[in-house]
Amino acid sequence: MRIATWNVNSIKAHFEQVTEWVKAEKPDVLCLQEIKCEDHNFPAAAFEELGYSCAVHGQKTYNGVALLARGKIENVVRGLPGDASDEQARFVMATVFGASRPVTVGGLYLPNGNPAPGPKYDYKLAWMKRLHALAMDMLQNEEAFVLTGDYNVIPAVLDMKRPEAWVNDALWLPPSRAAFQELVSLGLTDAWRALHPAEAAYSFWDYQAGAWPKNNGIRIDHHLLSPQAADMLVAAEIHRDARGHEKPSDHVPVVIELK
DNA sequence: ATGCCATCCAATGGATGA
User: Fold this and answer.
1) Helices A174-185 and A119-139, axial angle in degrees (round to 10)
2) Which residues 68-97 in chain A have a CB closer than 7 A to strand B?
């Protein structure tokens, strides 16, 4: 079973690229972030024609996430638990089938947090606390799960081309990294890094200042796996070629394979 | 680098992103 994540920076603006990629790659599960549309404007019918079921948690203009899966989807959760007053659409989770055992997949768009310090950074750290609490709860079940998406966290120096550019950025500040590390310390596995321990590779390149031709990127799109899912992990790949497309998203797909 | 580009909604610019 192949599980992909892709921050598409508007499903409307990049619909053709996303559907072409889906046709070519045929992932079993695809988590999309920044769809930037309400539920009723998500092109679910087009994905259903390609064989997918859709769980959508949309929002006008900003944010918005979707989870697509071949076959049935069960136990859909829309919105990150832990704060009923949170109106930002940044989390969708469901149980999918087709691997050696059922897998629960959470698709997330973690808050950017800039400028830091400030209320946006406070929101980011609070959101990460809620994600930590959810992961702790889910670990009690001893089942296979994957929390994947745009984490907006650079885990380590190896995950960026120009470390000096991110010193005061919310994606790299010590509290952000510490919160990410606390997720890993619960027993979760950063799938791509586990399979490529010394490789520098990126999943985001800014639109500005020639970041793409200079390969001035960062790795911020991750799959965190429960121990039961990590036992199934056989491959992880970053589809960097997608960034070279005309009018691309600023993120590229990241795909893992579970046996 | 103080968003240089890109998206959205709306409207000849503002908010947001990382």
Assistant:
1) 10
2) none
